[in-house]
Amino acid sequence: MTVIQLFSRTVALLALAVLLLGGAPVAERLTGLGGAAMAQQAAPAGDVGKSDVWRAIRNGERGYVSIPNKQAGVLVQSEGENWRAFRNGPLSNWGVWGMIGMIGLLALFFVIRGRVRIEHGPSPRRIERFNGVERFAHWLTAASFIVLALTGLNILYGRYVLLPLLGPEIFSAITVAGKYMHNYIAFAFMVGLAMIIVLWVKDNIPNRLDVNWFAKGGGLFGKGNHPPARKFNAGQKIVFWAVALGGLSVSVSGVALLFPFEFALFGKTFAFLNIFGLGLPATVTPMQEMQLSQVWHAVVSLVLIVIIFAHIYIGTIGMEGAFDAMGSGMVDENWAKEHHSLWVDEVKAKEREAALSGGRASPAGDD
Ligand code: HEM
After folding, report:
1. Which terminus of the chain is more exposed, N or C, with fewer CB under 10 A?
2. pLDDT 10s digit of each residue in the chain, 367 long?
3. Ligand 1 contact, 301 CB (< 6 A)
4. How far apart are CA 341 and CA 77, in angstroms?
């Protein structure tokens, strides 16, 4: 045996001795279980003490640590395993089924109903539906949402879909870039969302017309059957409220994920909901706050993505004349009369009023 071999063996033996002898106090400090458990360890039963310590650690017992990060006192955070299993299992699976299901439904609807045409044919007259500010707000929200959706879906599914296709180098570069885009473009989404809420909330208050609209299936399933609607019909109100409330919720949970351990949203929400006797967990640890924020962020985002599939379908191939509303802002008057008859009446009445009080002639032209 050479001197070097002898030396390294001695060092290894010494290290082992330090670990064995010093390990106990370290474990004690970390778990805070010291005294009793260690005493048991010395008892003839021996392993009973060890299993008690391990059981406590496994159950998330918090020990004492002197470093600033107090969470390091929890060695095994079992909820983390539940969170991971839910995220990579049911959450991911339901998301895929939701998206596939919606695409299937839209395809079926297209096959059965075809494109919803302007029944009275195109009119020579156009009417302003959304002004520049409204269209800017819409496209800011829409463009940022699409980037957030794609980069978010990559975080959830990229490793199953893109990684095998692109290989680790390209996938990693795309995912890192996507993560930065997701973090920063979120703020553009929040600005767009705030704008559309302010601009459109007054036109989206539910009323009795909505009940009739639903009763007639929105006029989508037959011809010559257009339920009256003001600026937004009941179907659009659902999209609006889903985007407004879902968007706010995704924004808040997203900010909680961007600034880890800064907020205690779920603890406070649960405490509030418990007033109604829901019996939700009264204490939520900072780590659980992060897990719940992630799950909530992903669930609400996936629901929104599924709803937006339907919205994009009806705004493009699904309905003749719809895209113009957000494209040029000017829609075909026959389209407007068929889908938003009461809104057309209101616009015309305003124009007549303006004309009578000496205002300018309107873009909608004469009646
Ligand atoms: C390519 C994507 C999109 C297209 C082609 C599109 C198209 C349209 C059109 C044509 C309208 C006006 C409908 C009308 O005149 O009555 C509209 C309205 C609206 N859009 Fe979009 N949109 C898209 C993406 C989005 C996204 C991603 C969001 C939000 C996340 C969004 C939110 C809204 C809301 C809240 C309204 C008002 C309510 C409604 O009409 O349903 N849109 N969109």
Report:
1. N
2. 444 454 445 444 444 343 333 333 333 333 333 333 333 344 455 566 788 888 888 888 888 999 988 888 989 888 899 999 999 999 999 999 999 999 999 999 999 999 999 999 999 999 999 999 999 999 999 999 999 999 999 999 999 999 999 999 999 999 999 999 999 999 999 999 999 999 999 999 999 999 999 999 898 887 778 999 999 999 999 999 999 999 999 999 999 999 999 999 999 999 999 999 999 988 898 999 999 999 999 999 999 999 999 999 999 999 999 999 999 999 999 999 999 999 999 999 999 999 988 755 444 443 3
3. no
4. 58
Q: Token pair 């060695």 is at which residue?
A: 75
- Pocket residue to mutate for ligand 1, from 240, 311, 317, most atoms within 8 A of Cβ: 311
Do residue 120 and residue 20 come from a single domain?
no
Residues 108 and 63 in one domain: no
For ligand 1, atom 34, the nearest C-alpha belongs to: 240
For residues 93, 95, 98 and 103, what is the CA-based torsion angle, rounded to 10 degrees? -110
Bridge partners of 36?
Answer: none
Give SS3 for 360: coil
107 and 19 in a single domain? The answer is no
> Which of 210, 245, 304, 326 should be mutated for ligand 1, with most atoms under 8 A from CB?
326
**69 and 89 inside one domain:** no
Nearest CA to ligand 1 atom 28: 142
Structure tokens at 339: 């889908």
Tell whether 231 is covered by a domain.
yes
Q: Is residue 255 part of a domain?
A: yes
